Amino acid sequence: MRPLVIKGVVSLVNGMKWIYKDAAKSQIFGGVLTSMCQTMENEMALSPEDEEEQDPTVQMWLYSFLAQHNLRSANATEALKYIEKAISHTPTVVELYLIKGKILQFGGNRAAAVACTEVGRNLDLADKYLNSLSAKYAFRTNDIAKANELIGMFAREDDKGDLNVHQMQTMWYEDHQGRAYYRQGNYRLALKNFCWIKKHLYTIAEDCEDFSGYSFRKGSYNQYLQLLTY
Predict the structure, then answer these.
(1) Hey, which residues does 157 pair with through a beta bridge?
(2) Radius of gyration of the chain (CA)
(3) Domains in the chain, please, with CATH?
(4) What Å distances lie between residue 29 and 17, 49, 63, 78, 167, CA to CA?
(5) 43-87 residue pLDDT tens
């Protein structure tokens, strides 16, 4: 863990998610992170034996790792406490607001999760992933108009003024929008979105069948075996 903590590898906790299948191991993992964090607060080092001080950003990442650890351990209160410390330490890191949004979502405060994710999105308006994530959170609060407005920043409109999400087979969009309409009781539009997903899957299946014939004609058997595995 040490080199990953020092480098500030954002995916550290996600990469260790197999540990959470064992309560004893996850407790040890959390203990190591807590020990590193306390030593950093007191001595700017990861352990008392270290002679070299660490960069202040290591402290911020440790706070964020502890927030993610507590979220995976279903302790939203502790997770929120640590992510607030991380944001206070360095308020310009986008990933911190995404983690906080997840914590708020887990705690059931969906409106606050949307607002938090929007703060992160506004730190990097050119990031399509942040835009999509913010739209997903808006859909979860049934704010369809807001979600469509966000998606429209990156999705080109067609001649009728509609977003080209269906042409791009954006199934996560259709799924989230369909669920939002379903929660509102608008079953017609909900069904319309789910039928788009069904149509895309049929198209994908047809493409796979076409590729089967192409593979035997052109002799691209390795790719065909990869398709069958998929």
Answers:
(1) 163
(2) 22
(3) 1-108 (1.25.40), 155-230 (no CATH)
(4) 11, 20, 14, 16, 45
(5) 999 988 888 889 999 999 999 999 999 999 999 999 999 999 999
Q: Provide the pLDDT confidence category of residue 35 given band limits of 50, 70 and 90.
A: very high
Query: Distance of CA 32 to CAs 3, 36, 57, 131, Å?
Result: 14, 6, 18, 35
Q: 117-123: list long-range contacts, CB under 8 Å, 24+ apart.
A: 120/94, 120/95, 120/96, 121/150, 123/92, 123/94, 123/97
Q: Quick one: tokens of 43?
A: 């001595």
Q: Is 221 exposed, middle or buried (0-12, 13-18, 19+ CB in 10 A)?
A: exposed
Tokens, residue 226:
């990869």
Q: By C-alpha distance, which of 61, 64, 74, 65 is closest to 29?
A: 65
For residue 70, the one-letter residue type is N
The tokens of 195 are what? 């039928």
The whole-model pTM stands at 0.85
Nearest CA to 70 out of 121, 116, 107 is that of 107
Q: Rounded distance, CA 36 to CA 41, Å?
A: 9
Which residue has tokens 């992510």?
Answer: 83
